[in-house]
Amino acid sequence: MKEKILLVDDEKEIADLIELYLKNEGYTIYKFYNGNDALNCIETEKLDLAILDVMLPDTDGFTICKKIREKYFYPIILLTAKVEDIDKIMGLTIGADDYITKPFNPLEVVARVKTQLRRYMLYNHTDSDDIEECTNRYDIRGMVINKDTHKCTYLGKSLSLTPIEFSILWHLCENKGKVVSSEELFEAVWGQKYLDNNNTVMAHIGRLREKMNEPSRKPKFIKTVWGVGYQIE
User: Fold this and answer.
1) Largest CA distance in the chain
2) Are 166 and 216 in contact, with CB atoms under 8 Å apart?
3) E strands in 111-214
4) Which residues contact 5 (CB under 8 A, 6 or more apart)?
5) What does the alpha-carbon distance between residue 164 and residue 116 come to, in Å, rounded to a whole number?
C-alpha cells in the first residue's frame, strides 16, 4: 500500500524538495502551493497524513488543520518558520500531532512522517467490535481504554482520539499511580529526545482533558503534579 500524503507549502522549492524525498520512500503525494486547493483535496481523497505550512497566501495551516479535524484523525505535521512557543502550542491545541521548524533537513521530515504513519497504521489496524477477548485493556474510574480495538470511552461516552492522544492516555494508564514526567511521556510517545521548554505534551494533555470534559483547573482524571509531571491515580 502506498500511503497518501497531503503536502501544502507556498514555497515551491521546499514543497518540491519534500515531495522528492517522500516519493523516493514510495509515498503518493498530493502537493499544493495554496490552501484552497488543499481543502478541495481533503474532501475528495482518502488521505493518510498531512504536512501543512502554517503561512500560506490564501489561508493558513491552522485553518486547514481545524478543517481536517472536523472529520478525520490521520496525523498532521505543521511546518513553521516561527519558533515562538505560542505558535507551536496553538497548532498542537487545534489538532496537529507534530511540528517542524524551518529550516530543516528533509531527512528529518521523512523520519517524522514514518513515525506518525507507523502509529496511525497501528491505531487503525483493527476496527472490529467482535473481538471476544481483550488482552490489552484498562478500566479506571469510568474510563475504559482498549489497545486491541484502539477505542476509549469515558463515563459511557466514546472519545474520538488521535493516535498521539491515545498513546499518551495509554502510557499514563500503564503507569497508573505513578507520576510520569513530560520528558518520559514525550520520549515514550514521540520516540524522540525531549528538549527543555517543550510544551508539546502540555498541549496534548489539554486536548485530552477537553475531550473528557475535564476542568482545566483541578482536573479529576489526569492530574498535574506541578514541577514533576502527570498522574492517573
Assistant:
1) 51
2) no
3) 137-140, 143-146, 151-154, 157-158
4) 22, 27, 28, 29, 30, 47, 48, 49, 50, 51, 113
5) 8
- DSSP 8-state symbol, 180: B
pTM: 0.69
CA distance 158 to 161: 9
Q: Do residues 8 and 38 lie in contact, with contact meaning Cβ atoms separated by under 8 Å?
A: yes
Decide the pairing of beta strands 143-146 and 137-140. antiparallel
- Beta strands 157-158; 223-225: pairing state: unpaired
Residue 108 corresponds to which cell in the numbers above? 528529518
The pLDDT tens digits of the residues spanning 117-174 come to 988 887 665 444 433 344 588 888 888 999 888 889 988 889 998 889 999 999 999 9
